[in-house]
């Protein structure tokens, strides 16, 4: 049995609480938040507290608060030499106060407030300063069904950055698709199967191999047509820049590509 | 029973052939391609020809060739007053020679050469000059299980453009994610569940509502960190431009957004 205390009440904290609650060999001892209001709906399931002095003993303390608040909260914890981890992609493990045994338990996924999350689809990136602490975090992840990966701070930092590209920026491209279609009275919904298929394709194929379209084909006529249709100057800039980026990746129409492309385009690995 | 002739041998032609073959009330009479080599593997299932003079009678002739070749091929067809359609997102219906009854049968999806495609996930955008021709194309789409939508040339043009954003450009963001992670020895595979979840999210939620992350939060500290990690100048430019685009969409941190955003962010429609 692994005992856990959760600190924070955002999406990550809430989804972790729900997953831990269902897991057989995890017990959540307490849920702390600065304000009780957010976690009050759970008060019949778990002891909720808003005073750090009330914290009980646990195997792992999970700080799931905003990046800026992690260091300070870890400092305020009224004990030492216990395993304290944060859940952030962008914060170093050394930002946790040094009086603790320190680690990171970073779920690489986007959480919605309402939708249920199956933790089978949530890879947990684990980092610990002391090797001995690694196994308990791995056991914690496995108990909720998550794949795990040992990831150092540099790797976690680039994963977080890459996540901005494949999640936030991709979502903004969906948004632009939404704007463009609705501006002509066409339905964005018609694009939804394509959006899903595009994401499914790279589950098996590398993005390099999956690429198609006018930019890759150097189809100047279509590119020109598209730029003419776009009215928003920023959309035009995005179209041009990403077209150039695709062409850099895939080389000229006669087919020169950099070494990275050649080396990675077949990359099919299992998680 | 609807009889069909397919002209062309690319991904769209091949996937359509396979779907038509399975459908109960469709018969493919012939499959034409300029070179027989590509379609030879199908010669036991269907009459294959490389000579337009051999074309038989059919209810619908489907031209699924590259955009540039559509007009000329339609002109070369040795008959008139029959229903001839193309399958392109970017070509007008009037590009088909005027001796024919003309239409468009545009499958809005990305097709892989090898992977099977379930046409339930392939919306067919239909356009015809004569209203009477619409119903046979709709029946054709329904027979292979596809959702259909009446779409005029302007709408089809913007759908095709939007498809470049949500498919080609999105795939390039995946590619950049691949480059960034591998540059630090982190695994791109860790991002795959996130990629899938990002696409799934907008099946229910508008991209506006689904947005999260440092750009939307105006989290300058994280944005600065990310730009520092990025070594590739073009990746930096893409990061900056898409961050700006997100901030234009979502307004300042105090929350001003344009009318379009306010009007569409709740948009949940069914196909």
TrEMBL record, chains A, B:
What InterPro entries does the annotation carry?
Answer: 6-PGluconate_DH-like_C_sf, DUF2520, NAD(P)-bd_dom_sf, P5C_Rdtase_cat_N, TM1727-like_C_sf
Q: State the taxonomy lineage.
A: Bacteria, Pseudomonadati, Bacteroidota, Flavobacteriia, Flavobacteriales
Point out the coiled-coil segments of this chain: none
Q: Where is this region: Disordered?
A: 250-271
Q: Give the Pyrroline-5-carboxylate reductase catalytic N-terminal domain ranges.
A: 4-87
Name listed for the protein in its UniProt record:
Rossmann-like and DUF2520 domain-containing protein
Ranges for the DUF2520 domain? 122-246
Instruction: Please name the Gene3D superfamilies in this protein's record.
Output: NAD(P)-binding Rossmann-like Domain, ProC-like, C-terminal domain
- Annotated Polar residues bias: 250-261
């Amino acid at each position: 049995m692994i005992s856990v205390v959760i600190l924070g009440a955002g999406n990550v904290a809430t989804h972790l609480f729900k997953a831990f609650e269902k897991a057989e060999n995890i017990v959540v001892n307490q849920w702390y938040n600065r304000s009780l209001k957010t976690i009050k709906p759970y008060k019949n399931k778990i002891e909720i507290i808003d005073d750090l002095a009330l914290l009980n003993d646990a195997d792992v303390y999970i700080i799931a608060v905003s990046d800026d608040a992690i260091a300070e909260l870890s400092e305020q914890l009224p004990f030492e030499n216990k395993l304290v981890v944060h859940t952030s992609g962008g914060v170093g493990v050394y930002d946790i106060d040094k009086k603790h045994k320190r680690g990171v338990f970073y779920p690489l996924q986007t959480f919605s407030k309402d939708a249920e999350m199956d933790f089978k689809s949530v890879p947990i990136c684990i980092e610990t300063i002391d090797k001995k602490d690694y196994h308990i975090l791995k056991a914690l992840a496995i108990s909720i069904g998550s794949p795990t990966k040992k990831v150092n701070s540099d790797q976690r930092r680039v994963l977080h950055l890459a996540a901005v590209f494949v999640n936030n920026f991709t979502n903004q491209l969906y948004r632009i698709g939404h704007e463009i279609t609705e501006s002509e009275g066409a339905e964005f919904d018609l694009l939804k199967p394509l959006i899903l298929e595009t994401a499914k394709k790279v589950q098996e194929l590398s993005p390099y191999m999956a690429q198609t379209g006018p930019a890759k084909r150097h189809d100047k006529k279509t590119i020109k047509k598209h730029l003419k249709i776009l009215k928003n100057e920023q959309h035009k800039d995005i179209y041009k820049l990403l077209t150039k980026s695709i062409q850099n990746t895939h080389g000229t129409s006669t087919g020169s590509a950099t070494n990275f492309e050649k080396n990675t385009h077949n990359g099919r690995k299992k998680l």
